[in-house]
Amino acid sequence: MDAKYMSALKHQHERVHTLRAQVEGACVDYVDDSTAEHWQALAGAFRGLAEHLDRHFSFEEHEGFLVDVVERMPESAGRVKELREDHDSIRLAFMDWGRVIESSADVAQQSEIARNGINALLETLDEHEKREAALLQEAYLRDAGS
Ligand SMILES: [Fe+2]
Ligand SMILES: [Fe+2]
């Protein structure tokens, strides 16, 4: 990948971390103080992360490093396939949770979402990004070192 792509990718990953932290923080705020304002803030942060992830995943998939990595390291094909499958399932999960968030009206349900539901989704996302970062390191460090 060229330097421009890699720098854009790095910037996008920083943005994933920032938006993810905002969602986590909004969940904590809502659990602390379950006001309508905090719920709206949580819903907004969640939408922001979902929209960014949708663009980010496309950026990685189409002519991006997920294509390039397999060309460099054909043995990584299975891992790349898993990362692509993660994208599909994470996109779906964000759509589903987005609908649940938009339609939930009572504090009990909202608290459950803020305490447990979203955190489980964030963990799935972290786990994906961790495996992806490891693969990126291997592919591009190996290349730089040879
Ligand atoms: Fe990814
Ligand atoms: Fe990523």
Descriptive notes:
By secondary structure, the chain is mostly helical. It has one domain (3-145): Four Helix Bundle (Hemerythrin (Met), subunit A), CATH 1.20.120. The protein contains five helices and no strands. It has helices spanning 3-32, 36-61, 65-72, 77-103, 107-145. Helix 1 (3-32) runs antiparallel to helix 5 and helix 4 (77-103) runs antiparallel to helix 5. The chain is elongated, with a radius of gyration of 17 Å. The relative contact order is 0.14. The mean pLDDT is 94. The protein binds fe (ii) ion (FE2) (2 copies). One fe (ii) ion binds next to helix 2, helix 4 and helix 5.
Helix count?
5
Question: Could you say which overall geometry the principal axes of the C-alpha atoms support?
Answer: elongated
**End-to-end CA span:** 16 Å
Task: Kindly name the structural category.
Answer: mainly alpha
The value of Rg in angstroms is 17 Å
Which sequence of SSEs, written as H and E, runs from N to C? HHHHH
Number of beta strands? 0
What is the CATH class? Mainly Alpha
Q: Do you know the CATH architecture?
A: Up-down Bundle
Query: Average pLDDT, to the nearest integer?
Result: 94
- Summarize the main sheet: none
For this entry, give a set of tags.
mainly alpha; Four Helix Bundle (Hemerythrin (Met), subunit A); 146 residues
Outline of the structure:
It contains 5 helices and no strands. It is mainly α. The protein is elongated, with a radius of gyration of 17 Å.
